[in-house]
Amino acid sequence: MSVSSNSRLERIITISKTRKTRQETIYGMTSLSAEQASCSQLLHMLRSYWRIENSLHYRRDVTLHEDQTRFKNHAAAHHTAIINNLVLALIAKSNFPFVPSARRFCAACPIKLSLRGRHSGFFSHETFILSLEARHAQSQQKAGLHA
User: In the prediction, which pLDDT does 119 show?
Assistant: First the structure.
């Protein structure tokens, strides 16, 4: 890879929990020429990268504690990632606004589900979603959130 251009970005970061700010300067290199990637295009690429990092990887790393697990067996790590993806997909299909609220709800209101469905012989994710949504609606009614 040959470097065609270098970039420098100065940014101010605010930590939302503490409201503390800090200034950072980051440097980058790209094989794209200045004609292929203007400053605004490079900024867009950087923001797109962080959008993915913040939306998917943050949920997996922080909320599901994926970075804290240490597997020596590659298959075990792969299977855990598959399960985490399934959990995130099920939460996304339910009406929970955030992954942590869904985890807290499921921990507080465990659902006893059969692993065998009536017709297919397998547990379906639709059954799980409907059960979650019904339990979530019941808990909101009890809390007086829905009339």
Answer: 43
The DSSP symbol for 24 reads E
What 3-state DSSP class applies to 102? Answer: helix
Residues 68-88 have a mean pLDDT of: 84
Which amino acid is located at 117 in the chain?
A: G
Decide the pairing of beta strands 5-14 and 21-30: antiparallel
Residues 100-114 have a mean pLDDT of: 69
Band (125; pLDDT cuts 50, 70, 90): low
pTM to 2 decimal places: 0.48
Alpha-carbon torsion (97, 98, 102, 108), positive or negative? negative
Instruction: Tell me what pLDDT residue 22 has.
Output: 93
**Helices 125-142 and 99-108, interaxial angle, to 10°?**
80
As a 3-state breakdown, the chain gives helix, strand, coil percent values, each rounded to 5, of: 50, 15, 35
> Which alpha helices (H) appear in 10-98, and where do they start and end?
39-52, 58, 74-93
Residue whose pair of structure tokens reads 């697990």 in the numeric block:
69
77 contacts 68 by C-beta, under 8 angstroms = no
